[in-house]
Design brief:
Elements: H1 2-12, E1 15-21, E2 24-30, H2 33-45, E3 71-74, E4 86-88, H3 96-102
Parallel strand pairs: 1-3, 3-4
Antiparallel strand pairs: 1-2
Length: 104
């Protein structure tokens, strides 16, 4: 799913970060407003997603994840294949990338 999301995000000029801890996904996405809206509509219709909640939305001066079509943070055990853009979480469930997303 992450590989598919990265390809779609590249085509839509979207960058961002996906955090998975404690059975919850939190995603920070950035890009052109029309691309963000299109992705948001797709996420809401995707039956693999449940209880989607928008926490914040608005313009930013510059991208925080410019180099990542979708950076990913989670438990180190989930990175068996050394995925590019993977950032292991610490004991509190955070990474530097996740902290950047939370600073929005």
């Amino acid at each position: 799913m992450l590989t598919e999301a990265r390809a779609k995000n590249a085509a839509m000029h979207i960058t961002g970060h996906l955090l998975y801890t404690k059975e919850v996904f939190v995603q920070c996405i950035e890009g052109p407003p029309e691309s963000i809206e299109s992705l948001w509509q797709c996420l809401q219709k995707d039956t693999r997603h449940h209880d989607i909640e928008l926490l914040a939305r608005g313009p930013v001066d510059q991208r925080k994840f410019n180099d990542w079509r979708m950076a990913f943070s989670s438990y180190p055990s989930l990175n068996r294949y050394n995925m590019p853009g993977f950032f292991p979480v610490d004991e509190s469930g955070m990474t530097q990338a996740a902290a950047q997303c939370a600073a929005v």
